[in-house]
Amino acid sequence: MGAEKMRFYVSKCHNSLNSVDYTPEKYSDYICINPYYPVKITNDANFIIDSGAFQDVGKQAKRLEFQDALKRQLDFEKTVTDNHRKAEAIVSYDHLVDEQYDEGRGQFKERVQAKVSRKYVAETIDAAKFLAENREELAPRRLILSCQGTTVNQYLYCVNKILEIADEDDIIGLGGFCIISKSKIYEEQFYNVINKAFPKIEKKGIRRVHIFGVGLFRALIQADICAHVNGLECSYDTSSCEMNSVFGKMFDPQRQVMSKVFSRNQKYEAYLPAKLAEFNISTMLDFWKKFNEEFDYPEKFKAMPLKDNKRTNR
Fold first, then answer.
1. What is the pTM of this model?
2. What is the CATH number that goes with domain 7-294?
3. 15 CB neighbour count, 10 Å cutoff
4. Chain segment 73-97, per-residue pLDDT in tens
5. What are the boundaries of each domain within the chain?
6. Average pLDDT, whole number, for the chain?
7. Whole-number Å distance between alpha carbons of 264 and 162
8. Distance CA 295, CA 289 (A)
């Protein structure tokens, strides 16, 4: 079987970093943008528009109606490129189960309780239904129908419900795993989900999955292999390059991690965050190109965590 190589959508949240122009689209043909961040795309790179649900976590009382969330995306789309190009895809307005907010701590990564998660998963399914109901109006944009869940069974329930309303040209989004590097439990859940969900997605006739906000390379590599053997294309987005480069971190292609290289005092002298971010993007893209060209994909594969894994690789 097999499918196209892993596709990395660079999350662009700023047009400049520390007053220096930041243009990841010069290096990547695929960009992920968000209505919360008024960025421009300066060339013909493909872009997907996230829903803003992550940023709305801190505004639970002000969470938008589905039609208002979509309007926010479409209004934003008009400002992204000078020639008013349409997005490659629009993301459904899911309700995140791995992000919480309180006045004392602000927004923080922690799974919600079971009673709350049932409500959020129901809203996530309804969000996918709403987007599917507007499929014709949104064409030629593709739909990314995002899934959520705090347990493997709950996640698969969400996947099954969304597959009922999905078309073959849709993309199934895997949300709720931004938290993956905080605990071995979450990483194991991720592997269990993709092992069971990917065959279901392929059986439906869908050919593409997208992973939201994950920068953990061992998980992405296993997802890529699992997708490949199930005949699926796999893509992901992360703002890791943008955020970590500001703090002097550089991508290590041998270990597939962001490593601290420069101190805070070396900013502007040894490195410019915008240029370091672009270098890191280029290095990551080179890694994926080499991996997908040279890695010998197996015919069968089961994603699973390393038994001796330590919580240091991010």
1. 0.94
2. 3.20.20.105
3. 15
4. 999 999 999 999 999 999 999 999 8
5. 7-294
6. 93
7. 45
8. 10
